[in-house]
């Protein structure tokens, strides 16, 4: 009888051990919504392709939601756990009286990612040359347009009075509009800017990222409730992001391009390398996940200058750096 009882206990313990081991080996799924697909987000794809998320026991399921409003809707309705989007969206949500705030916890890019592209080749470009031109800008209220206006005003140009400003074209259609003859200048993301230059459709004359200074341009964020319910997941996620940021800093543009190429199958590898090198050399990729207070204030100054800041939100209200600092300390 004792032998039989001992066997039952032993088998029960083995089953429990097997179940526990199995549970520990099962990756935690994280649904990630990125605002668009862009080489600008290279460290994110490095984290996926180099297995940094997997090393932390996370199964990251990434979806491209194509637009800040759609990304934030996915996050707020529970369709995504984490979002990669501009920090201005968290301010808009908070200003509307959100009961479950969206918290910025890990920064990915720290400058604007757009470039000024001229239709004709310009020697000795100066911003003054935009006066009297037709400028094809970005959607009102979005970070590209706000940064664009901030930079132009910094150089003494009122985009609404000194240029014929066009900003009623959908983000996805702006390159086609310029290619078909609309505008003398256009504000474009990569790799479109470099592709246009290669094809003779336009010429990069300036970088909005270099001109605007550091801002939390794209940040990983999550609902406050999700972060409180899943602190270990957020910490592991941030650790994987930090690993990717270090890897990007320590490797060449060519190596980075080769790593992220599976996410840009329609783009030539040489173009990817050119774009990565351009972003890396101007310091667009954040070197760590901390969003600092100076960047946060710079963001709100830019939004205010554009007339799109609903109200100022304290840094501590929507930014959590405790996780990033803990990860970096380890």
UniProtKB/TrEMBL annotation:
Any one cellular-component term (Gene Ontology): periplasmic space
Signal peptide interval: 1-23
Domain of life: Bacteria
Keywords, sorted A to Z: Signal
Pfam families membership: NMT1_2 (PF13379)
Intracellular or extracellular location(s): Periplasm
Chief localization: periplasm
UniProt key word Cell membrane: no
Keyword Oxidoreductase: no
Family stated for the protein in its record: Belongs to the bacterial solute-binding protein SsuA/TauA family.
Protein name: ABC transporter substrate-binding protein
UniProt source species: Schinkia azotoformans LMG 9581
Taxonomic lineage of the native organism: Bacteria, Bacillati, Bacillota, Bacilli, Bacillales
């Amino acid at each position: 009888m004792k032998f039989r009882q001992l066997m039952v206990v032993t088998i029960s313990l083995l089953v429990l051990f097997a179940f526990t081991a199995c549970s520990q080996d099962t990756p935690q799924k994280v649904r990630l919504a990125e605002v668009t697909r862009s080489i600008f987000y290279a460290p994110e794809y490095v984290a996926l392709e180099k297995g940094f998320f997997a090393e932390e026991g996370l199964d990251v399921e990434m979806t491209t939601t194509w637009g800040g409003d759609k990304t934030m809707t996915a996050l707020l309705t529970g369709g995504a756990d984490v979002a990669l989007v501009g920090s201005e969206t968290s301010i808009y949500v908070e200003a509307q009286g959100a009961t479950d705030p969206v918290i910025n916890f890990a920064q990915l890019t720290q400058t604007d990612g757009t470039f000024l592209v001229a239709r004709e080749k310009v020697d000795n470009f100066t911003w003054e040359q935009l006066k009297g031109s037709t400028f094809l800008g970005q959607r009102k209220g979005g970070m590209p347009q706000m940064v664009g206006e901030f930079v132009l005003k910094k150089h003494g140009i009122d985009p609404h009075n000194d240029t014929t400003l066009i900003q009623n074209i959908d983000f996805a259609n702006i390159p086609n509009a310029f290619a078909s003859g609309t505008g003398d200048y256009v504000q474009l993301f990569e790799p479109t800017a470099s592709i246009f230059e290669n094809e003779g459709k336009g010429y990069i004359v300036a970088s909005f990222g270099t001109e605007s200074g550091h801002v939390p341009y794209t940040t990983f964020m999550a609902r406050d409730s999700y972060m409180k319910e899943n602190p270990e997941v957020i910490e592991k996620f941030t650790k994987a992001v930090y690993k990717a940021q270090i890897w990007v800093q320590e490797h060449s543009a060519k190596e980075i391009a080769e790593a992220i190429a599976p996410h840009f199958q329609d783009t030539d590898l040489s173009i990817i390398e050119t774009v990565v090198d351009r972003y890396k050399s101007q310091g667009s990729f954040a070197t760590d996940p901390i969003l600092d207070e100076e960047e946060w204030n710079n963001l709100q100054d830019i939004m205010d200058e554009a007339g799109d800041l609903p109200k100022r939100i304290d840094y501590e209200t929507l930014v959590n750096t405790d996780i990033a600092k803990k990860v970096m300390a380890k």
